[in-house]
Amino acid sequence: MELTWHGHSTWYVEVGDTSLLIDPFFDNPHTSMEPTDIETPDYVLLTHAHSDHVAHAGEFTDSTIVAPVEVAAYVESEMGAEDTIGMNIGGTLECDDAYVTMHRADHTSGVDLDYEYELGNPAGFVVSDEQPGPDGTGTAFYHAGDTGLMSEMKDVIAPYLQPDAVALPIGDHYTMGIWQASIAAEWLDADHVFPMHYDTMPPLEADPQEFVDAVDDRGIDGEVHVLDDDGSFEL
C-alpha cells in the first residue's frame, strides 16, 4: 500500500492495482500539483461536504465517488459526478483491490447554496487490503477526516479495525490540535502516524515537530512521519 500526501487532508492511496483519492483539495500550500496533474483514481473518497474537502471532486468525474449518502447525492447533482456510491457509518465497501470502511468523525458537514444545507454525518475512512474481521491480518490505513478526539478511536477503531497507519488532523480550531491528536495516536496504537490538516490557512497554523515531540512524550511505539509536500510512504 502506497500513501501520498498532497497537503491538507488530500491523500492518494494505492492498494494493489486500485487507486483512491481522499478529499481532493489542491488549493493548499503543501502541494505543487493541480488536479489535472493527478493520475485519474479509480475511486474518490469524500469524508464530508466542507469546501476544503470536496473542492476538486468535480475534476474527477471519470472516477467513482464514494461518500456519505447525502454528500454523494450533492456531488452528483451539483458537480456533475455520474458514478457515485453513497454509504454510511459502519459500512464496508469492496472497491476492487481495496476495502473501504466508513467510521464517524466528530465534526459537521454542510455546504452553502444560498443558505446552509446540512449534508449528513461527517466521516473518516479505513482503507484496507483485506475485508476487516476478527483476524486483522491485512494492512490498513485510517484517514480520520476532520474530527475531535473521540473514544471510538480507542474502543472501536484500534481493537477491531486495527489500522497500521493513521492520518490525524493537528491544526486545531476546526479539529483537534496537537495535544489531543497525540492522545489519539496513543489510543490508536498504530505503527505509523501522519499529521495532516495544518498550515493551510491562518487558523490552522501548527508546527508538526511539536506533534512529533508530543507523541514521543507519551512513550508510544508508533513512529510519526512528517511528509514533505507531495511526499509518499510505502506501507
TrEMBL record:
InterPro entries registered for this protein in UniProt: Metallo-B-lactamas, RibonucZ/Hydroxyglut_hydro, UPF0173, UPF0173_UPF0282_UlaG_hydrolase
Record keywords, A-Z: Hydrolase
Domain Metallo-beta-lactamase per the UniProt entry, residue ranges: 7-197
GO MF terms, alphabetically ordered: hydrolase activity
One Pfam family per UniProt: Lactamase_B_3
Domain of life the protein comes from: Archaea
UniProt record similarity statement: Belongs to the UPF0173 family.
Matching HAMAP family: UPF0173
Protein name stated in the entry: UPF0173 metal-dependent hydrolase C449_02430
